[in-house]
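[stage:ingest] chain + small molecule (C2E)
[stage:ingest] validated
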Amino acid sequence: RATRGGEEVRGYVPSMGQIFMRRFQLVTQFRQSLEDGQVSVHYQPKVSLPGRQVQGVEALVRWQHPEFGKLDPDEFVPAVEAAGLIGALTEFVLEQSLRRVRKWLDEGLRISAAVNLSVRNLADADFPAKVVAALNRFDVPAKLLTFELTESGVMADPQRALPILRELHELGIVLAVDDFGTGYSSLAYLRQLPVDQVKIDKSFVLGMGTDLGDLAVVRSIVELGHSLGLTVVAEGVEEDVARDQLEAMGCDVAQGYLISRPLSEERLEAWLQARTTR
Ligand code: C2E
Ligand code: CA
Ligand code: CA
Ligand code: CA
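[stage:predict] done
[stage:export] tokens:
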């Protein structure tokens, strides 16, 4: 692939025109790709600490493009957002996730699903009604659904976002602040948001083994979160040591490659099976 988060892959530097053309192609093809089954949802398990029971999964979108191959959400989600198509993407991910939660309920498992929201979802006054309709359609209780939102997303237009967040929260949906620690106003605004969870950004969790500053940030987020009565989730847990340190700090939930990479629905089923029969 040509670019990844702005860094160039050696040997091939695409021109601005090529980047623009590819983005254009992606957004014009997106709706059809949903129908053609090119877009799918992968799920990454989250486990409780210290018990290590599977507590939920995060839904992460994937696009198997016929020409460009497997695309990262970092490449196409911003383009889809900018083109005003995020509603369709979120509804797709939400439906897939609730269908999966329903199957687990039928098997006697209570596993929640976390769906990432975009700032544009929070500008759609009809969004809560769509969510209620989806919960009803799959007969899933609201507390088994989590929405992850970034602070910058909420703060882009708080007048619009806050009433929608309150409505979602009153329905019983769990709200989590994603990538926590990377914003500028984190601490001041956290108290004003109707949230239940903070997710410590993976950059701090990845760095905590070698960087005392990162370790201090992680520790203070755990303390702050708990003092506000929030559940604290750490993402980017790749090493045993990190998990052990997080556990010792009292962090509630861990997510990361150490536990599992994001998996297709089929592979997740096998993973869950292997865990419960061990
Ligand atoms: P995010 O919400 O912060 O998701 C976590 C990202 O960290 C995922 O990348 C996941 O694969 C990756 N990750 C998980 N564990 C580890 C680990 O131990 N180490 C490292 N280095 N990385 C880990 P992914 O799937 O590429 O998603 C990237 C971003 O794309 C997400 O960041 C989210 O902002 C966005 N995204 C993904 N799916 C959706 C979606 O359905 N809707 C929206 N609006 N955004 C989405
Ligand atoms: Ca997330
Ligand atoms: Ca995150
Ligand atoms: Ca992110």
